[in-house]
Write a structure and sequence with these properties.
The complex is a heterotrimer.
Chain A: E1 5-8, H1 12-21, E2 25-28, H2 34-39, E3 47-50, E4 59-61, E5 67-70, H3 75-80, H4 82-87, H5 89-97, H6 101-106, H7 109-114, H8 165-171, E6 175-179, E7 185-189, E8 212-218, E9 225-231, E10 242-248, E11 254-259, E12 266-267, H9 279-286, H10 298-316
Parallel strand pairs in A: 1-3, 2-3
Antiparallel strand pairs in A: 4-5, 5-8, 6-7, 6-8, 9-10, 10-11, 11-12
Helix pairs in contact in A: 5-8, 9-10
Chain B: H1 12-17, H2 19-22, E1 29-30, H3 35-39, E2 48-56, E3 59-66, H4 71-78, E4 97-100, E5 103-106, E6 119-121, H5 123-126, H6 134-141, H7 151-166, H8 185-191, H9 202-213
Parallel strand pairs in B: 1-2, 2-6
Antiparallel strand pairs in B: 2-3, 4-5, 4-6
Helix pairs in contact in B: 6-9
Chain C: E1 2-3, H1 27-32, E2 49-55, E3 61-67, H2 69-73, E4 77-82, E5 104-105, E6 111-117, H3 120-127, E7 131-136, H4 143-146, E8 159-162, H5 165-171, E9 174-182, E10 194-200, E11 203-208, H6 213-224, E12 231-234, H7 250-262, E13 266-269, H8 272-278, E14 285-293, E15 299-310, E16 331-340, H9 354-372, H10 376-382, H11 401-412, E17 425-426, E18 429-441, E19 447-453, E20 459-462, H12 472-484, E21 491-494, H13 511-534, E22 541-543, E23 546-549, E24 552-555, E25 565-573, H14 576-579, E26 583-595, E27 601-611, H15 618-637, E28 643-644, E29 649-650, E30 669-673, H16 697-709
Parallel strand pairs in C: 1-25, 2-13, 11-12, 15-16, 20-21, 27-30
Antiparallel strand pairs in C: 2-6, 3-5, 3-7, 4-6, 8-16, 9-14, 10-11, 10-13, 14-15, 17-18, 18-26, 19-20, 19-25, 22-23, 23-24, 26-27, 28-29
Helix pairs in contact in C: 9-16, 12-13, 15-16
Classes of the chains: A alpha+beta, B alpha/beta, C alpha+beta.
Chain lengths: 318, 217, 733
């Protein structure tokens, strides 16, 4: 870990301004991913701006009947919120499938969204990785790819996004609120937060330098039955091989997003029109053009079957 | 930065508190009131020191630490509270579980400087060999350990976990996420899954916790 | 004392303390965090410097140059140790690769430098500033690819043959010929390899986490080129080993070298992500098993061949060992072959040989039973043998495999199992039951102890034996309490110090029986001293703090009235282990549930029935078995060090990527110990259980998955991707 100076942010605007103006600055909130990566110098900030003291840890109703989730709401608190459990249970379930209770007690809403991939080559600085060192190559392409993405990838990077929470937020049509270094704020769909790797896998989000996520906003409850089906080798404390977030209405229609298969939560509003009539077609559309290896080719069949199981789960809820 | 007093390295208490670091020579920088100042000092690798106070097991413990020091290393290497263990240092095993402000966290993935003023309970704060906490006594009775290295993390985790259950925090094991959870064995297993025991004492650990929870099957 | 005739009645048989399920005497220390592990001796070492290990970034080749300038200049750095400046270093007898590499690199993450600094943070940061220029060389990393070049190992017993296997197999009416693979596995003990070292003149004082104190002393001495007498090594608490701490590793050597260079105490712990490639692992195997049987289910021919790899000079995984002994059959052969692989050093992990061997053999037996249409419990019973099948003149000392299988079947409700696979369903779950035999050879090793009778009547035991979670402290205290007739709380046990008599150490499930036998020997000697002091005859009894002979009685403390009595002895072994085959037996029963849609397997119930001689403490012994069963679940379902065959290293080298079981994977585990004593093993009449408990578990699970799904997987771990194409079709899942 490189040496760094440290300050506690006093306001969101000040934090964003400082993050943009101090070279090598990074925000730290829960720190559960950032410190992990700083220890092995994959992240090397020279200045940390601790945002934990900011007033961003509330969950509040929005005027239109939705919910504004402060960026600093801990994963545990979000999952435990009565409104989330009642109106957005897919989110509560996804959160509870994520990481461990200790990590969820620290990890924040914004930090969860911004966590980086768990590709083992990304984590091993003796291996080439375009995400870590642009232009150095991708060891995973010819290596071990079981946990990797099969869609949305590029010749430069096949890393998967590890979050469960983000998959549920995507299926809930969440939006992200931020403040920028100049003090301006903006709001945009979560779908637009993460970039696909293309030839620049080191650029992972569309945030500007210093831009601070302040909240995630859920639209009014969509109703329906919510299911989050996470498939993994061990029964807990493991990243998803494939996950399915499903919001299913009584007529069989609904929304689907997949985790574990792409560099970002993977959803297609167009494809999910077929959900009621042909769920497998939804998965096939989502995974069209999948680039797999012998290690991870099973994810295609697994995604179909996981959605099938999720629908069966939803049906069993009366 | 206003909670952070600038530390004058010439002060005697700083010398006492920051002994290890001052031994490193004069290269240390200090996390002063204006961090911009600190950020412009000459050697980017020089450690930055911060003065903070951890409230550990009810006692205020003032420290001067390299900002890089994790809560775990502050406890183990600076306060010599070695009951909290370092198993992986990456949040992948749970051996370093401590209770901060009533919540269990991985001490390895938190900076000490982020916990200035925080109340921290470690295994040493739960009980001693002569006066065991009920959970510690249950672990002994049920042989809920083998090598003992994950044990303190399991115990801290389980004590905080039962409080989470009492507060109605849901888990992945629950059928209905909106319903109030109960301390079934499956709930306990899911909620303890952030604490790895390679010796494989899980079956006994759950028996010990269930006994304390009053739900031993 | 020499044990060369079968044990008869002795003071242990009283079983007032031995055999009782007492709580661990070190339990309160462990539960309160006051047991000190190797990195935690702050009482003895007030201001250590911190060492951080740098691992090689290539698998094979040489270091062309190493630029230490930036690291040396980094704040807080005191010294940097490399092969260049460490002086001449030897290699421990029990190490295959050098513990400090350079300029030759033998495997990925082989240690190439130690940075010593004032603080851990400074050492870690400076370690990253070292720049290394490598000349890479091509290596062999893929066992399947190297299999063809595998050779017969020069040591051990690579081949055995009895009768005419080829002829009998060809003639057998029912045959099986299958290949099984087991992956590289990691010990992944919770405490990283760690050491604290200081030099007291030319004498090295080192606290290290090691299972075998005397081996460690001699290998440290040899590596550093100093006399064994100059090494004082302490290992009082060890945060798990499983074989991974049988041998000295880089932390110990580098802490010693770092302390010498820094002229201060230095502590070193291996960073977790370095451990998987830096230390040892259980090597992958490819195993071919052929079995021929009559229609009635009698095995007439059995062959087991195994291929594994290791660095040059390494050893094979002896995965055929159990097949030489477990089942009858007149015509048999086994063979071990060893390939050269440039991965990290392969070595012993819990039940080396039998653990992966049973993973394969016990699937093969299940498959054979299925081919024959015979219940797999009955098929095993029908092919039991009471003698070493390769040497029928050698009986087993005790062999109650049939009892284990029958007891387990009864308790587990095996009779209710439907023979046809994929025939039981519970909602989304496909339900299956599986069984496997458990088998592990029993080893005994010379072990010494010193016993002190204090003036207050307390007993202190000193031996360099280690407690790696096995319960050594407790069973040694029980043994001394039984022998000297005092309550358990009057016994103090001091372990893991090279100043104490050399013990068996902990490994190969020999430690419990062997170390307590050594304590038995020392106590016998102490009893003689006590009787001489008290003037009592040799048949006196030691009971309740008294020594009694007929109507005469004296308090034990009386014997030490004029000063502490000290006795030291060791237990050595004659040829009983040659005349009698000593093994431990068991049976594992498992119920699994496989998700019909996703193929996720979850273990619902597990039972182990063990016949392993006298159980010295049923509470700690049960823990050993449930721990082994848990590790067996990992072996069955998730544990797999994945080899990057291009770069030559284990890719998933942390505890997120290498998935060991978590709480949610493990149900309540049942263990039954058959009431047994084995007078051929030692005066304790005990054998080992810690490794028996893992042997067969993974196969029982694989067999249960087959029973649940109808899918036979012969390639561990049995992950969902190996099932998914053959699960019930969509809509019916």
């Amino acid at each position: 870990m490189r040496a760094f100076t440290y300050e506690r942010a006093t306001s969101t605007a000040q934090a964003a301004e400082r993050a943009a103006s101090v070279s090598g600055a990074k925000f730290i909130a829960g720190g559960t991913n950032l410190l992990d990566l700083m220890k092995i110098e994959i992240e090397t900030p020279t200045h940390l701006i601790d945002v934990n003291g900011l007033d961003l840890a509330r969950i509040e109703p929005t005027p239109d009947g939705g919910l504004r989730i402060g960026a600093l709401v801990r994963n545990t608190d979000l999952a435990a919120d009565a409104r989330v459990r009642r109106d957005y249970p897919v989110l509560a379930r996804a959160l509870l499938a994520d990481a461990s209770p200790q990590l969820r007690n620290r990890a924040t809403t914004a930090g969860n969204l911004l966590q980086r991939t768990r590709c083992p080559y990304f984590y091993d600085s003796d291996q080439p990785c375009n995400k870590r060192v642009p232009g150095s190559g991708c060891a995973a392409l010819a290596g071990y790819r079981r946990m990797h993405a099969i869609v949305g990838t590029s010749d430069a990077c096949i890393a998967a996004h590890p979050s469960d929470m983000a998959v549920a937020l995507r299926v809930l049509d969440a939006t992200v609120e931020t403040i920028r270094a100049d003090g301006s704020t903006r709001s945009f769909p979560l779908a637009d937060l993460h970039r696909l790797p293309g030839s620049t896998p080191h650029l992972e989000t569309t945030l500007d330098a210093g831009e601070l996520v302040t909240a995630v906003v859920l639209p009014p409850p969509a109703g329906g039955v919510h299911v989050y089906r996470k498939v993994r080798d061990r029964a807990s404390y493991a990243f998803a091989l494939v996950s399915v977030a499903l919001v299913r209405q009584a007529d069989g229609s609904g929304r689907v997003a997949l985790g574990g298969v792409a560099p970002k939560p993977w959803r297609s509003e167009e494809a999910e029109h077929a959900l009621a009539s042909d769920p497998t077609a939804v998965v096939d559309a989502l995974l069209e053009g999948a680039r797999t290896s012998p290690d991870n080719a099973f994810k295609v069949a697994l995604a179909r079957r996981a959605l099938d199981a999720a629908i069966a789960d939803a049906r069993s809820v009366r | 930065m206003n909670e952070y007093d600038a530390v004058d390295p010439s002060r005697r208490d700083a010398l006492a508190l920051g002994r290890d670091l001052l031994l490193a020579g004069a290269a240390a920088r200090w996390a002063g009131p204006t961090s911009a100042h600190a950020a412009t000092t000459r050697d980017p690798q020089a450690p930055v020191l911060a003065k903070l106070t951890l409230r550990v097991n009810g006692e205020a413990r003032p420290l001067v630490l390299d900002t890089r020091t994790t809560l775990l290393d502050a406890l183990r290497e600076h306060l010599h509270l070695t009951g909290t263990k370092k198993g992986c240092d990456h949040g992948q095993c749970g051996a370093c579980t401590v209770i901060v402000g009533g919540r269990r966290i991985n001490a390895c993935l938190s900076l000490a400087v982020m916990h200035d003023g925080d109340d921290i309970t470690t295994i040493e704060g739960l009980g001693t060999p002569g006066h065991l906490h009920p959970m510690q006594a249950a672990f002994v009775r049920h042989d809920a350990y083998q090598c003992g290295y994950c044990t303190t993390g399991q115990i801290c985790s389980s004590v905080a976990m039962l409080e989470e259950l009492r507060r109605g925090i849901p888990s992945h094991a629950g059928g209905d996420v909106a319903a109030a959870p109960t301390a079934t064995p499956d709930e306990l297993r899911e909620r303890m899954s952030g604490n790895i025991c390679r010796c494989g004492a899980y079956s006994n650990i759950i028996d010990a916790i269930a006994e304390v929870a009053g739900t031993r099957p | 004392m020499k044990f060369d005739t079968p044990a008869t009645t002795n003071p242990i048989d009283r079983l007032a303390v031995v055999g009782q399920p007492v709580d661990r005497i070190d339990g309160p220390l462990k539960a309160t965090g006051t047991a000190r592990y190797a990195y935690e001796h702050n009482d003895a070492v007030a201001h250590p410097a911190y060492g951080y290990v740098v691992g090689a970034g290539i698998a094979k080749g040489t270091i062309r140059s190493m630029d230490l300038a930036e690291a040396t200049a980094a704040p807080g750095v005191i010294a940097i140790v490399t092969a260049d400046n460490a002086g001449p270093l030897g290699k421990g007898d029990r190490n295959t690769a050098r513990l400090l590499g350079g300029p030759r690199i033998e495997h990925y993450h082989q240690a190439i430098a130690l940075v010593v600094a004032e603080s851990f943070e400074q050492a870690r940061a400076a370690a990253r500033r070292i720049r290394v220029d490598y000349a890479r060389e091509a290596g062999a990393f893929d066992l399947a690819h190297a299999k063809g070049s595998a050779a017969k190992p020069r040591s051990g017993k690579p081949d055995t043959a009895v009768g005419d296997f080829d002829g009998a197999f060809a003639a057998a009416p029912v045959k099986l010929d299958e290949e099984y693979t087991t992956p590289d596995q990691s010990h992944a003990m919770m405490e990283p390899h760690a050491s604290t070292a200081l030099w007291d003149g030319d004498r090295l004082v080192i606290w290290t986490s090691n299972q075998m104190v005397a081996w460690a002393v001699s290998d440290i001495a040899k590596t550093l080129g100093i006399a064994k007498e100059k090494v004082h090594l302490m290992s009082p608490f060890i945060g798990g080993g499983f074989g991974g701490k049988l041998f000295v590793r880089a932390d110990a050597i580098l802490a010693a070298l770092g302390a010498r260079a820094a002229k201060r105490p230095v502590k070193v712990a291996l960073p977790r992500p370095l451990m998987f490639n830096n230390t040892v692992h259980r090597p992958a195997t490819i195993q071919r098993i052929r079995i021929g049987a009559t229609h009635a289910g009698r095995i007439t021919a059995i062959a087991h061949e195994s291929w594994s790899g290791d660095l040059p000079g390494g050893k094979p995984e002896t995965a055929v060992d159990q097949t030489r002994l477990l089942y009858a059959g007149a015509n048999r052969m086994t063979a071990l072959r060893l390939a050269v692989l440039d991965l990290a050093e392969a070595n012993a992990m819990r039940a080396p040989g039998e653990a992966p061997g049973m993973m394969a053999l016990e699937i093969a037996i299940d498959e054979m039973a299925e081919k024959l249409g015979i219940d797999p419990v009955q098929f095993r019973i029908a092919n039991d043998t009471q003698v070493d099948p390769e040497h029928p003149e050698r009986p087993f000392s005790r062999r109650r495999l049939i009892d284990c299988l029958q007891t387990g079947a009864r308790r587990f409700g095996w009779d209710a199992r439907k023979a046809r696979p994929a025939s039981t369903r519970d909602g989304r779950w496909l339900v299956g039951l599986g069984v496997a035999a458990a088998f592990r050879n029993n080893l005994v090793a010379k072990s010494g102890a010193r016993v002190r009778l204090g003036r207050d009547g307390t007993i202190a035991v000193e031996t360099d034996m280690t407690d790696i979670g096995t319960g050594s402290y407790t069973i040694i205290a029980q043994t001394a309490a039984e022998m000297m007739g005092v309550p358990l709380h009057q016994v103090v046990v001091r372990l893991g110090d090279s100043d104490y008599p050399v013990s068996s150490g902990s490994g190969g499930q020999w430690g419990g029986n062997s170390s307590t036998a050594g304590v038995y020997a020392a106590c016998m000697k102490l009893r003689e001293s006590v009787l001489a002091k008290l003037g009592l005859p040799g048949d006196a009894e030691f009971v309740d703090g008294q020594v009694r002979a007929g109507t005469r009685r004296a308090s034990l403390a009386e014997a030490a009235r004029n000063g502490e009595l000290v006795a030291e002895d060791s237990m050595e072994y004659g040829d009983l282990a040659k005349r009698y085959q000593q093994s431990t037996f068991g049976a594992h029963f498992v119920e699994v549930r496989v998700d019909a849609a996703t193929g996720e397997t979850r273990v619902k119930r597990m039972l182990a029935v063990c016949a392993a001689g006298r159980i010295l403490n049923p509470k700690t012994a049960r823990s050993q078995v449930i721990g082994a069963m848990t590790m067996g679940v990992g072996a069955a379902l998730s544990e797999h060090l994945v080899v990057d065959r291009a770069a030559g290293f284990f890719v998933n080298h942390d505890l997120a990527g290498y998935e060991v079981p978590v709480h949610a994977d493990i149900p309540h585990l049942d263990v039954v110990f058959l009431d047994e004593t084995d007078p051929m093993s030692s005066p304790m009449k005990a054998k080992g259980v810690a490794e028996l408990g893992i042997c067969g578990v993974a196969a029982a699970i694989a067999n249960a998955i087959h029973h649940a799904t109808g899918v036979r997987v012969r390639d561990y771990p049995v992950t969902l991707d190996k099932l998914i194409d053959r699960l019930p079709p969509l809509g019916r899942a």
